[in-house]
Amino acid sequence: MTCYGYFRSSAAYRCRIAFNLKGVSPEFAPVHLRRGEQTQRDFKALNPQGLVPAVTSGDLVLTQSLAIIEWLDETQGGRSLLPADPGLRAQVRAFAQVIACDIHPLQNLRVLTYLKTELGHDQAAADAWCRHWIGEGLAACEEIVEREPDRGRFCFGDEPGLADICLVPQMFSGERFGVDLSAMPRLREIRAACDKLPAFADAHPARQPDYDL
Amino acid sequence: MTCYGYFRSSAAYRCRIAFNLKGVSPEFAPVHLRRGEQTQRDFKALNPQGLVPAVTSGDLVLTQSLAIIEWLDETQGGRSLLPADPGLRAQVRAFAQVIACDIHPLQNLRVLTYLKTELGHDQAAADAWCRHWIGEGLAACEEIVEREPDRGRFCFGDEPGLADICLVPQMFSGERFGVDLSAMPRLREIRAACDKLPAFADAHPARQPDYDL
Questions:
Q1: Range of the domain at B93
Q2: Which of residues 120-179 of B touch A (CB under 8 A)?
Q3: What is the distance between the alpha carbons of residues A200 and A202, in angstroms, rounded to a whole number?
Q4: Does B212 map to a domain?
Q5: Can you name the residues that pair with B207 across neighbouring β-strands?
Q6: ipTM value of the model?
Q7: Number of CB atoms found within 10 A of residue B211's CB
Q8: Which residue, A145, A140, A146, is CA-closest to A163?
Q9: What is the pLDDT of residues A119-164, one digit of tens each?
Q10: pLDDT digit string (tens) for B181-208?
Q11: Residue in chain A nearest B49 by alpha carbon
Q12: Domain assignment present for B122
């Protein structure tokens, strides 16, 4: 199994955590996003979208981090990353999608590039754009976990799962763009619990072989 | 069961198709997005994100269209909206996520409002923004379905499912923003096959009780 990723990609970071939680160690194939390797013919033959992550396993080519993570969960042993109850599964998936659909795509490299090159904005405006969407999205996430009746150490209960896998990389990006996380005590508490686990700590961008500043 | 939606919301449109395919008829509660009803206290008590759709079923409150659709699929009888094989499920989910993560959130009302009010762009620039992301995203979708070895009437095989549920509303939005769909013959063929089914036709925005031009 091979995982194509980039140290700073939030979506690749999610997959790294999931691989670690499931005890699976794919080969790592770096795709340098800032040098545009994701738009080159070789990579687009694998993923027509030209985005990381992509995972290959035999003849199978998988894309989109949430689809990859659910596939991992369905095919690999170990503790499940989603609860068994359909109602709870839906809550966890919805939380993951708040991040994967409504926060992360707005702060993606291709979007920031369009804001700067096509719409003529400077870096300060692009950063403010990111802070706005990440701040608004994480505030909704804080409210969702705040409402949880059975509060545990993680987003939903006492075991880490899909929601935490999405939260930690998004908080990392939030910090990068200067989002004020002080009004999100519950998310910060969950993140601190995640950071103590090797599955999360080892997946951190700074610990990847392609890391550069 | 109650479904909170808006006739023109792509994500609500997806849920309507899924309800129809599963033979479930929830009560419809309109949330008028252009009048800002989604940001009012009553609705945000239901969904802190202030976005449609939201579905209530007994005490359960569900948000995020893909999570709602998978919940429906897991709890209601009838033909499944996802294939049984994990590899195929991952392909279908990835296609749905290309649309739900990487296309639709960029053309959402809140994003267009920010482009116009915070960044000072006119309607023409906002429309060009939408055409760019929808065009690029649907071009990737065309390539994905083009590569399908077992070509059927729908995105993945001969039965409609989650991928088609996401595709049809996105093509409707593409047309609204003037995206050139002529270079996407396979997607147009699939959409035509979907349009023939009452589950899709009855879910069309123009057929909803809150429809206005």
A1: 86-200
A2: 121, 125, 129, 132, 137, 140, 143-144, 147
A3: 6
A4: no
A5: none
A6: 0.97
A7: 13
A8: A145
A9: 999 999 999 999 999 999 999 999 999 998 878 999 999 999 999 9
A10: 999 999 999 999 999 999 999 999 999 9
A11: A140
A12: yes
